[in-house]
Design brief:
206 residues; alpha+beta; Aminopeptidase; 7-stranded mixed β-sheet; 6 helices; GNAT_dom
């Protein structure tokens, strides 16, 4: 199987803050176990269609709660996209060791009002960069056959898509990390920390 020709640190389409309303910039921040309630509320806000796409099938609210409660935070990096202070999109990177190499699965979710604005592409770009910085040798993502949006996003990063049995599996092979990839993640983390501190110190209006 041929490897993708391009380095997915910079995909074909690079979303930036210009892609979003000036009053609603996107802040990317890694979630921790303390954010589990916020993550759960985000998943519960997904429409039935989007929830089905996220979990590869229809699941009830209790299953969503159980998923969040059982999430392995040690093996999973969860990147949140915050708009106006609310979590509106999430990219998950779940790693699993398959000797002798490390592989990972990616899952994305974006709430309906914030779809088609580049949020999913922005999340996938940064999650793939995080995979690269963790020496993941292969990244894969799964989606339903009719999930055209996810397939479109994956193609922006030269994913190899295989269609079979009503589903689609996409694969990417990260390059080794370099100075630029490490700096990109560090800059994103620093910006998130700064925005959190500023938000906490913002004066209350009376």
């Amino acid at each position: 199987m041929a490897l993708p020709k391009s380095d997915f640190l910079f995909p074909t389409i690079l979303p930036d803050q210009a892609a979003f309303p000036a009053t609603s910039p996107v802040t990317l921040r890694k979630l921790t176990q303390r954010d589990v309630q916020v993550y759960q509320e985000h998943l519960l806000r997904l429409t039935p269609h989007d929830r089905c796409n996220r979990f590869m099938g229809a699941i009830c609210d209790d299953r969503v709660r159980a998923y969040c409660a059982d999430l392995n935070w040690t093996a999973t990096v969860v990147l949140g996209a915050f708009i106006d202070g609310e979590l509106r999109g999430v990219g998950e990177l779940a790693t699993a060791t398959r000797s002798p190499r490390l592989v990972a699965e990616i899952a994305l979710s974006v709430e309906e009002p914030w779809q088609n604005l580049g949020v999913g592409t922005l999340l996938l770009r940064h999650v793939l960069n995080m995979a690269r910085n963790r020496y993941v040798s292969r990244v894969y993502l799964m989606c339903l056959l009719d999930n055209r949006k996810m397939q479109k996003i994956a193609r922006k990063f030269d994913a190899n898509l295989i269609f079979e049995d009503g589903g689609v599996e996409g694969s990417l092979w990260p390059h080794w990390p370099n100075y630029m990839s490490l700096m990109e993640e560090a800059t994103t983390d620093g910006r998130a920390f700064f925005n959190t501190i500023v938000g906490q110190k913002k004066p209350t209006r009376h």
